[in-house]
Amino acid sequence: MIAVRQLTKQYPTHLAVDDVSFEVGQRETLVLLGTSGSGKTTTLKMINRLIEPTSGTIQINGRDSRERKLHELRREIGYVIQETGLFPHYTIGENIALVPRLLEWDERRIQNRIRELLAMLRLPETYLNVYPNQLSGGQRQRVGLARALAAQPSILLMDEPLGALDPVTRSAIRREFKNLEELRQKTIVLVTHDIREAFELGDRVALMDGGRIQQIGTPKELLLQPVNDFVRNFFADQWLSLQLHVFSLQDLAPYLPNETAPPPEARLFPAQTQLADALNELSGPEAIAFKTGQHFVAVQSATIWPALGQLLQKQTV
Amino acid sequence: MQEFFKFIVEHADKLAEQTLTHIGLTFLSLCVALVIGIPLGILISFRPRLVGFTLGSVGVLQTIPSIALLGFMIPLLGIGPGPAIVALFLYALLPIVQNTYVGIREVSPALKEAARGMGLTRWQILFRLELPLALPVIFAGIRTATVINVGVATLAAYLAAGGLGEFIFGGIALNNTNMILAGTIPSALLAILFDAGLARLQNLRGLWRYRVMIVFFLLAPVLSSFYWYPAGGQPRLHAGFAHEFYGRADGYPALIRTYDLHLAARLIDQNLMYEAVHTDLVDIISGYSTDGRIKAFNLRTLADDKHAFPPYQAAFVVREASLKKYPELQPTLDLLAGQLSDSSMTELNYQVDYLHKSPEAVAREFLNQTGLLQKPYVGKRQGKLVVGAMIFTEQYILVEILRQLVENRTALAVVTKTGLGGTKICFDALNAGSIDLYPEYTGTGLLVILQPPLAVSDSLQVDTKAVYDYVSTEFRRQYQLSWQKPLGFNNTYALMMRESQAGQLGIRTNSELKRYLDQ
């Protein structure tokens, strides 16, 4: 749980963060979205006190962060940054073990935890003794995440975690991270300037500009109920594709035929599956289906597009 | 080439000792520079405000010419290993401080922030991130400092701190190329060796780099201890010899031949040698028997009871042509015969060197005391006598005495040409007629100018009169130069000790010294 109240950071030359307040609930992912200079990274760094606020308070799990010893506070908060910040002179194993060793875990527990994380992030154990520069960007990013998760923090701060990757690797890793059970258990604040990343990963998104939060809410709220022109214009370019991220299969139900029995040879998906993911699945030949109430709905690449058209048309009106 | 190897073989012991001392000096000062420089570099990386001042001052030290820096050490700290190490340390400081600072500063700020973000304390960031990543850069600095120090350490010999510079300075003093090379080649090899070794270290990758670098930090103090290694069994008395004395056949080798007296000697500049015995840095030196500092520092001259050192009677050497041209010159020169004893010459030197009187005033006082001056000649000067002198105090005084006496008693105008480099230069000038006379010593005339076959010089060695007769006959026959009657004193080599120590140990002669050392 993170509660930020009236957070302000005044630099000699400019006001970086201006009266920002928000809460991030247990197991929630909040994305701070904005262009560079919007104050999102400054806000993030004030949470683990890499930057000290000019005024305002931050509570971490119910305690004021200023009451905590700096390094103890930080060891309880996982921190992932762009370019990963892996120590180049430490092996992958030593990098992952960094925070557990600071916390003086016993060595067997550390080794078990490292192996668990490697398995989880699908990194071969042979990587344990290699150095970061021997890995690809995507692999380094996974190691960076493993290091942040190593000491099992309940809170994770991520600063443009995928910023250094090419678009293809980026969406692959993003999907991978999204599906990690362990990440779903964390309270996460993630900073990005990538709108799709925000919509894919964020339970809620805080859109920032000029040091202020312009609007905070679910991606759907931001997209469909913008509070001002800034928010509306911010999403205008990608408005269509973003809807694939805010709508789920459930939303398509009215526009597709219902059946009482599950369609044969179709894979069953949860009704909350985002349309973007569903479309991804439909790139192959087989059909998928989901259950709504008592009924089953089959979706095929031939039928999804007309239904989508109808849904979107309704939104624009 | 063959002679060079012969020299190396003959002086292998001394060379090994000097090499060890050299390595010791280099690493001792390097260790001090590491112990002070690395923390200083770290400090300024913590406090950027101090960077300009610190690197500025350390940089200025680096710009002082090394020989000047060592020169400054003498009035500040005296001579010996201490001041030499301080000077070397000051030289090594810049590359180490600068590279430590640059190495730490060049660690990516993003990495440092990531480390802070993960909860590393300031010190943990320093030791786990900054220093390991800065290590290759710091090592480049250490490599530079080491190579600089191997070179500058040759100058330590100037401060009587030993090392390979002893042979280089000695070789220069004696104009002995083999001796210069015997110091130069090993020190160049050392520099290449350390440079290549540290370069390989620097190029190691991964874990090995850190392991080997840690080993280096442990090894450096061990290499430093080489400085004391040659001292080995701690001789009862330490000797400090002038380069010339060490190298010349009539110096230390004569001492070995005659007394079988072996001393663990350090080679010292002959002007600093007296200072060295005075300040207890050494116990025995190879002095000159009429030096003013014998009196100033209360030194005891050990009697050469077995006559190891040839006589060096002082006398004026004059062109026969000049004697003919100015007949009044001969009787005037004769007046000075036997006028100066060892102790009175020492006294005169002392007055000039230590009481800082001018040679002119000292000479006048001496002439007044001896009553050699008459009512001065006041007429017009006719004829010109050119008098040469080598570049040390005693010669200045002697030519001044001569000038005043000649001008007092004759119509000759005397022109002095002082500061001539040495015997060879004076002799050549005399032979060529650029000067008419200069003060010379019989032993030098024999060994430097005449260089008779060994059998001849051996037969003469001990006999003062025989040497004088031989040089005076040969100079007249070969060069038409006339040796005047001896002035009286004998400025020869002599071992000297502090009066207090010599008195305590009851040593008055070289034989007694030998006996004491053999006990």
Automatic annotation (TrEMBL), chain A:
It comes from Larkinella terrae. SUPFAM superfamilies: P-loop containing nucleoside triphosphate hydrolases (SSF52540). GO terms for molecular function: ATP binding; ATP hydrolysis activity. InterPro entries: AAA+_ATPase (IPR003593), ABC_transporter-like_ATP-bd (IPR003439), ABC_transporter-like_CS (IPR017871), P-loop_NTPase (IPR027417). Gene3D superfamilies: P-loop containing nucleotide triphosphate hydrolases. PANTHER family: OSMOPROTECTANT IMPORT ATP-BINDING PROTEIN OSMV (PTHR43117:SF4). Residues 2-235 form the ABC transporter domain. One of its GO terms (biological process) is quaternary ammonium group transport. It holds the Pfam family ABC_tran. Coiled coil: none annotated. Belongs to the ABC transporter superfamily. Keywords: ATP-binding, Nucleotide-binding, Transport. This is ATP-binding cassette domain-containing protein.
TrEMBL record, chain B:
It is found in: Cell membrane. It comes from the Bacteria. Keywords: Membrane, Transmembrane, Transmembrane helix, Transport. GO terms for molecular function: transmembrane transporter activity. It holds the Pfam family BPD_transp_1. Residues 19-198 form the ABC transmembrane type-1 domain. One of its GO terms (cellular component) is ATP-binding cassette (ABC) transporter complex. The chain crosses the membrane at residues 20-46, 58-78, 84-104, 125-158, 178-198, 210-229. One of its GO terms (biological process) is glycine betaine transport. Belongs to the binding-protein-dependent transport system permease family. In the C-terminal section; belongs to the OsmX family. This is ABC transporter permease subunit. It comes from Larkinella terrae. The lineage of its organism: Bacteria, Pseudomonadati, Bacteroidota, Cytophagia, Cytophagales.
